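Supplementary Methods. Inverse-folding protocol.

Structures were first reduced to a discrete structure-token string of length 109. This string, shown here, constituted the complete conditioning input.
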């Protein structure tokens, strides 16, 4: 199962998907990796004007994975609904000439 990796400060519990040398809240240096596997779709937008190589229309969603972590990704969901459960997956984000850029998308959980 694909997951989003986050880093939880062992001093204060602040969790972020950005790996830092020091906690932005308490300046602690000790982190534990947390795997986030399911989130709730908070909002999304559909874009009809996109850069070359992206699917059109392109749907981008913001999901809350708990732990205070929100993440943004392309949605591979035909009829997204705010409040639905989503999970991260690996997929092609963009095709440039004959190269495919892989990354994390959200699909229905
Ligand atoms: Zn901290």
């Amino acid at each position: 199962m694909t997951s989003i990796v986050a880093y939880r400060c062992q001093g204060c519990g602040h969790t972020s998907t950005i790996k830092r040398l020091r906690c932005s809240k308490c300046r602690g240096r000790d982190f534990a990796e947390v795997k986030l596997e399911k989130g709730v779709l908070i909002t999304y937008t559909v874009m009809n004007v996109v850069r070359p190589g992206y699917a059109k229309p392109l749907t981008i969603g913001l999901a809350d994975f708990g732990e205070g972590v929100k993440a943004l990704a392309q949605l591979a969901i035909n009829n997204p609904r705010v409040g639905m459960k989503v999970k991260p997956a690996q997929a092609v984000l963009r095709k440039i000439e004959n190269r495919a850029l892989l990354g994390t998308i959200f699909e229905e959980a």
